[in-house]
Amino acid sequence: MMLDAILENLKVLGDEASYINSEGMTTFSELYGYVSNLYHFLLRENEKRLPVVIIGHKEVYFRAAMVASSFAGMVYVPIDNHTPRGRILEILEQLGEVFVIGGSFSSQRCVSVSEINDAMRCVSERGIERIYMGKDDAYYIIFTSGSTGKPKGVVVSYKNVDSCVRWLASLIDVRGKVIANQGDFSFDLSVADLYVSLFCGATHLAYEKDCDEGAVDRIVRCLPSYAVFTPSFVDLLLLDKRFSAEGVPSLEGIIFCGERLRSITVRRLRERFPTIELINCYGPTEATFAVTGGIVKGEEISLGTAKDGVEIVIADKQMAVLPDGEVGEIVIIGDSVADGYLSGESGGFFEQGGRKAYRTGDLGLMVGGELFFSGRADGQIKYKGYRIELEDIERNIAELGFVEFVMVYAKRDEEGRVLKICADVLLKNGEDISARDIKAKLSDRLPSYMIPMIRVVDEIPLSANGKYMIGADINGKKTYY
Ligand code: AMP
Question: Which of 71, 206, 255, 264 has the fewest CB atoms in 10 Å of its CB?
Answer without folding.
Answer: 264
